[in-house]
Amino acid sequence: MSNSEVIVVTSGKGGVGKTTTTANVGTGLAKLGKKVCLIDTDIGLRNLDVVMGLENRIVYNLVDVVEGSCRVKQALIRDKRNPSLYLMPSAQTRDKSAVSPGQMIKVIEHLKEQFDYVILDCPAGIEQGFQNAIAGADRALVVTTPEVSAIRDADRIIGLLEANGFKQMDLIINRLRMDMVKRGDMMSASDVVDILAIPLIGIVPDDENVVIATNQGEPLVGSDSPAGKAYANVVRRVTGEEQPFLNFERGISFWTRVTGIFHKV
Amino acid sequence: MRRFFRRKSSRDVARDRLKILLISDRVNCSPEMMELIKVDIAKVISKYMKIDFANMEIQINAKKGARGRTPVLYANIPILDLHK
Q: Which candidate, A101, A145, A99, A118, places its Cα nearest to that of A30?
């Protein structure tokens, strides 16, 4: 499949929701009938398998594939619920230096033949793990929370992605609390978009259901919870569909439409 | 009007801190260097008029271009007396 997309989910700062976003966007795309492969590129600290609830099925991993100890197909784990969704787990007992950007590109080239979407869960930081994760990607989802430290790191990541020739970068603002924004105790989505100056693709409210879903190892995309609805919208926008912003997202949608930031150049 | 008397909200504080932080992050220019630039600008302007150095501000902002990332140096220099 030549028109497959390779998307890296990145943030710079740790703990802002990269893995949760990867799991939910991937699951959501699979639910739309797309063939999706998720790759956990965080070597030494794998997490995506746990969030997906697939930790008991791992036999081979990304490092095994790269080193030629197994075929690509052998390292792919099929999702419990969605037959068109696969996970390539990372290695837990190795470190970043086990994989190079060139090797990542080779693995991704192979996967592109079979999948509509290849989604890479990027490790925190800007070192080799980051370089590996972005090497084969052609677009990026930048995840941030409305906090000074996370936005600062996101800005740095956007600069690095630009320097690496990325043309399409979209912003996901995670864990927004509308009640705090109204009180003036949290930056609003439009504050964040103003500062980072890349197109907004989704706002995910702070929702305890995310924790519950992670406990159970089942991404909540598409469920009736606020975050589940928000992720479902992100997924539709990732496929290029226009999707109106939800209630908690309002106030920004109008503004961003007026300033034109939401429209892709 | 009430907003005028109220203390700055933590949201505003965060936004202001971030803007200043990102200026130095983006241009790779330290606060010390910004201070040196500020002093030098003040020296030059002071040759011609009396300025309020204490309330002078300079900052590098991203100009809203196609990508919103062209840096621009802004200087806000209150003048106390136009004729020295």
A: A118
With beta carbons less than 8 A apart as the criterion, state whether B79 and B50 touch.
Answer: yes
Min Cα–Cα distance to chain B from A259, Å: 11
Q: Give the strand pairing for A85-88 and A36-40.
A: parallel
Mutate to test the interface with A, among B7, B11, B20 (most CBs of A within 10 A): B11
Q: What is the DSSP letter of A98?
A: G
Torsion angle, alpha carbons of A69, A73, A74, A78, to 10: 150
* CB–CB contact B9 A185 (8 Å): yes
When pLDDT is averaged across residues B27-51 and rounded to a whole number, the result is: 87
Q: Could you report the per-residue pLDDT of A216-240, keeping only the tens digit for each? A: 999 999 999 999 999 999 999 999 9
- Residue B20 domain-assigned? no
Q: What are A's interface residues with B at a Cβ cutoff of 8 A?
A: 147-148, 151-152, 155-156, 159, 162, 181, 183-188, 191, 195, 197, 265
**pLDDT tens, A27-63?**
999 999 999 999 999 999 999 999 999 999 999 999 9
How far apart, in Å, are the Cα atoms of A8 and each of A121, A190, A239? 6, 23, 15
B78: in domain: yes
**Contact in structure between A20 and A51 (CB atoms under 8 Å):** yes
From the list A155, A156, A184, the residue facing B11 with the nearest CB is A184
pTM of the model: 0.81
Q: Which CATH architecture has domain A5-259?
A: 3-Layer(aba) Sandwich (3.40)
Number of separate domains in chain B = 1
- Inside any domain, residue B10: no
Q: Does B18 touch chain A (CB under 8 A)?
A: yes
Any chain A CB within 8 A of the CB of B3? no
Q: How many CB atoms lie within 10 A of CB B55?
A: 10
